[in-house]
Amino acid sequence: MPSQKSGYRKVVATVVAALSLSAFSATAQTNLVPTLSLNDAKQVAFLRNWDLLAAQKDVDQATAQRWVAKEFPNPTLSLSTTKISTDRGNGTSLGNGFGDRSYDSIVAVNQLFEIGGKRTHRKESAAAGEAAAKARFAEARRQLDLAVTRAYVSALLAGENSRILRESAQSLRKEAGIAEVRFKAGDISAADKAQIEIAAERLEIDAESAEATAQAARLAVEILLGEKSPGGHWAPGDSLEGLAGTPIMTSQESPGALRPDLVAAEAAARKASADLSLQKSLRYPDPSLFVQYEHEPADKPSTVGVGISIPLPLWNHNRGGIAGADAAREQAEFQVNKLRAQISAEISSAELAYADATSRFDRYHGKIQPRSEEIRKTVSFAYSKGGASLLDLLAAERSHNEARLATTQAEADAVVARTTLQNARSFPSPPKP
């Protein structure tokens, strides 16, 4: 779809210029980490993703096939000269010039005429093939929209997990400072002090592992964006909490236009039906008409002739081609019916997943995490005053850390579930106006 492709270029021209991942390394000179929002990442992917570019070429090929289907067969020109003597000259009473000799020279033009609706059926098949290719391009874009969201959210989640683990480690380091004071005062043992330090060290190791995961996730995003040399040297410009808090619009609460994969399947079924009609029309032989001019001096120097040739359908009635095309048509219709059922099930499943994800997000974000934070602060204060044991402190820290990690996971699940539901209902991210 050239018009849509050019529209994408206009949409993301400024984004590519400002956020081109190939230019990310240049920003290192200013010690600034470039940021990339989810929406901008999608727009860049819509322009540069390798699979989407390949899908566009499928559309170009289908368009070319439609042009081919519209063309008439070319006429055939034949030239021949016979009756050339090998023993003596071919001169006649007219003379011995080339045009006066007794050569039998023929110029003929043959033109094939397709009958039985072959050309019509071929054009219908090509038009359906082009529609299917365009729908597959739209489906590739829909799938890319979801893939970029998942990869971007994975990068966000891993980064948030790393931040949470580092903050938890820093919190325990502070508790270790308090433990140092209490140890010198003789309130706790050296073993209690060491346990806090060990717990902080383990959290720092987990944070480093989460950062490595985040780096790998950023590389995955760059691959989807068509970056030739992925480096992962960028930071997400969105937050999980902000993305998770975006509700589905009212206009997206019910299925919209037909899903592109269903449109592609229906177009493939139409193409198979046209191919069947074409195979049936091949039973009718196509005549070839010809017109010829013959020059044979001297008694009959110039004559013209017309004729027709047509294959005799005595043995081959194209039964095999018709049977194969009929089977392909039935198969395409089965695929359409199967896909309709799958889409219905996919939407229902996505609705359940979205309801569950948003419910968990609301509970973790509104109740569980605030309560765990309050408990942690209370136990930490009590421990500093000697009113809580080391076991109580570590349990509160661990519980709060788990609650924060679970909250970020719920946020990520909510974002992915919302995008999955929107895509299932055929509401992918639209290009910017």
Describe the structure.
This protein has nine helices and six strands, in the order αβααββααβααββαα. By secondary structure, the protein is of the alpha+beta class. It has a single domain, classed as Outer membrane efflux proteins (OEP) (Up-down Bundle). Strand 5 and strand 6 (300-309) form a beta hairpin. The radius of gyration is 37 Å and the shape is elongated.
Continuous helix count: 9
Q: Please give the largest β-sheet.
A: 4 strands, antiparallel
N-to-C series of helices and strands: HEHHEEHHEHHEEHH
Query: In percent terms, what proportion of residues is strand?
Result: 5-15%
* CATH class category name: Mainly Alpha
> Can you tell me the overall shape?
elongated
Question: What is the CATH third-level topology name?
Answer: Outer membrane efflux proteins (OEP)
Which features does this protein show?
four-stranded antiparallel sheet; 6 strands; 433 residues; disordered N terminus; 9 helices; Outer membrane efflux proteins (OEP); elongated; two-stranded parallel ribbon; single chain; alpha+beta
Present the secondary structure layout:
Elements: H1 2-19, E1 35-36, H2 38-48, H3 50-70, E2 76-82, E3 104-112, H4 118-184, H5 190-224, E4 235-236, H6 240-244, H7 260-281, E5 288-296, E6 300-309, H8 319-384, H9 390-424
Helix pairs in contact: 1-2, 2-4, 3-4, 4-5, 4-7, 4-9, 7-8, 8-9
